[in-house]
């Protein structure tokens, strides 16, 4: 009977996070806690950047928005991969694709900020239509 309980517990165990090594002791718990805190900090930063983009648009806000939006999207899509992609090889392929997409997104936003009007001005121009 104890073997059956062990098998049932293994089936009910949470899925491994695809963005790091399997959980091992208390070290991974602290890393997960820091990651959760970072996600919340970026979300709060975005809440502050939105009014700042309206009130005082400029290069500093444009590049901050580029970084925060890219990081926020990267972490969000990473959770989609964790939830819906299964198997070692598909997870690795999806994570590589995510890093490529995030890098291209950040590079594109920085290019747009440097060579064009920037994120804040572009949104203002869209609102003026």
Automatic annotation (TrEMBL):
<feature type="binding site">
    <location>
        <position position="84"/>
    </location>
    <ligand>
        <name>a ubiquinone</name>
    </ligand>
</feature>
<dbReference type="InterPro" id="IPR007992">
    <property type="entry name" value="CybS"/>
</dbReference>
<comment type="function">
    <text>Membrane-anchoring subunit of succinate dehydrogenase (SDH) that is involved in complex II of the mitochondrial electron transport chain and is responsible for transferring electrons from succinate to ubiquinone (coenzyme Q). SDH also oxidizes malate to the non-canonical enol form of oxaloacetate, enol-oxaloacetate. Enol-oxaloacetate, which is a potent inhibitor of the succinate dehydrogenase activity, is further isomerized into keto-oxaloacetate.</text>
</comment>
<dbReference type="Pfam" id="PF05328">
    <property type="entry name" value="CybS"/>
</dbReference>
<dbReference type="GO" id="GO:0020037">
    <property type="term" value="F:heme binding"/>
</dbReference>
<keyword id="KW-0479">Metal-binding</keyword>
<comment type="similarity">
    <text>Belongs to the CybS family.</text>
</comment>
<keyword id="KW-1133">Transmembrane helix</keyword>
<keyword id="KW-0349">Heme</keyword>
<keyword id="KW-0408">Iron</keyword>
<keyword id="KW-0813">Transport</keyword>
<dbReference type="GO" id="GO:0006099">
    <property type="term" value="P:tricarboxylic acid cycle"/>
</dbReference>
<comment type="subunit">
    <text>Component of complex II composed of four subunits: the flavoprotein (FP) SDHA, iron-sulfur protein (IP) SDHB, and a cytochrome b560 composed of SDHC and SDHD.</text>
</comment>
<dbReference type="GO" id="GO:0006121">
    <property type="term" value="P:mitochondrial electron transport, succinate to ubiquinone"/>
</dbReference>
<keyword id="KW-0496">Mitochondrion</keyword>
<feature type="binding site" description="axial binding residue">
    <location>
        <position position="72"/>
    </location>
    <ligand>
        <name>heme b</name>
    </ligand>
</feature>
<protein>
    <recommendedName>
        <fullName>Succinate dehydrogenase [ubiquinone] cytochrome b small subunit</fullName>
    </recommendedName>
</protein>
<dbReference type="InterPro" id="IPR034804">
    <property type="entry name" value="SQR/QFR_C/D"/>
</dbReference>
<dbReference type="GO" id="GO:0005743">
    <property type="term" value="C:mitochondrial inner membrane"/>
</dbReference>
<keyword id="KW-0812">Transmembrane</keyword>
<keyword id="KW-0472">Membrane</keyword>
<dbReference type="GO" id="GO:0048039">
    <property type="term" value="F:ubiquinone binding"/>
</dbReference>
<keyword id="KW-0999">Mitochondrion inner membrane</keyword>
<feature type="region of interest" description="Disordered">
    <location>
        <begin position="10"/>
        <end position="32"/>
    </location>
</feature>
<comment type="pathway">
    <text>Carbohydrate metabolism; tricarboxylic acid cycle.</text>
</comment>
<keyword id="KW-0816">Tricarboxylic acid cycle</keyword>
<keyword id="KW-0809">Transit peptide</keyword>
<keyword id="KW-0249">Electron transport</keyword>
<dbReference type="GO" id="GO:0046872">
    <property type="term" value="F:metal ion binding"/>
</dbReference>
């Amino acid at each position: 009977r104890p073997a059956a309980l062990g098998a049932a517990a293994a089936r009910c165990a949470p899925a491994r996070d695809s963005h790091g090594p399997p959980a091992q002791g208390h070290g991974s718990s602290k890393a997960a806690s820091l990651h959760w805190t970072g996600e919340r900090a970026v979300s709060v930063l975005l809440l502050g950047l939105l009014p700042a983009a309206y009130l005082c648009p400029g290069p500093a806000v444009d590049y901050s928005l580029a970084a925060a939006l890219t990081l926020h999207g990267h972490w969000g899509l990473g959770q989609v991969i964790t939830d819906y992609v299964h198997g070692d090889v598909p997870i690795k392929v999806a994570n590589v694709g995510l890093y490529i997409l995030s890098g291209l997104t950040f590079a594109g936003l920085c290019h747009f900020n440097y060579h064009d009007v920037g994120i804040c001005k572009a949104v203002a121009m869209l609102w003026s239509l």
